[in-house]
Amino acid sequence: MTDARYLKRTILKDEIFSTYLNRTRNLRIYLPPGYNEILSYPVVYCQDGEEFFNFGRIATHANRLILDEGIEPFIIVGVEVDTSIRTQEYAPFGSMFKAYTACFAEEIIPYIEDKYPIRRDASERILAGDSLGGSVSLHLALMYPHLFRRVISLSGAFYEASQQIYAEKHDLSWLSVWMIVGLQETQFISDTGTYDFVELNRQTKALLEARGASVSYEEKEGQHLWGFWQNQLPDALSYFLNRS
């Protein structure tokens, strides 16, 4: 049974109007136990924000890690997405990719950091995403290296178009990526085709490491589902937030 302390979560809902996207974007903000505006906090920004909270149970995981595992308290910002245009925003070949990435880095980040006591150093910001959310998180880090240096990728959808962009980079020694993929993800059917996510993740790991990035990579039994990713989140968060 889940400890009741883990379920006492402070989750706020907010929204921001994006001039790049010409629409409103909903946000979910998790504040840690003992939250104090006088202090400052690292932050995890999640693509597919609603899913990270509802299916990934990231707020419950965060409470347990902070209360029982000694992880430094941190804030979580879930950036919600309209699933009907998700590929257009998250994929580099999507019609809204440039607008979405600009919105994320140039509108959402300043908005959150003006409102909450978040540390402004790139090493204190973590990007997290599943599938295409993982690949767009990596794109954001490469596009805005002054803002992001740490990425959590859950079964990243590292299609050829993304790999070509990564391959154009020469020095990624500043980048740290935590990656996991399920061994049963070899024939995943998406809206753009059928893909071997295991092979795509292996290729991307090799691309990143060849350019000096620090990569924590693992393959486990699992499918391209939140039932798999949910159980990986504590290790992913601990990897970047455990200061011991």
From TrEMBL:
The keyword 4Fe-4S does not apply. Keywords: Hydrolase. The keyword Hydrolase applies. GO terms for molecular function: hydrolase activity. InterPro entries: AB_hydrolase_fold, Esterase-like, Mycobacterial_A85_antigen. It comes from the Bacteria. Coiled coil: none annotated. This is Alpha/beta hydrolase-fold protein.
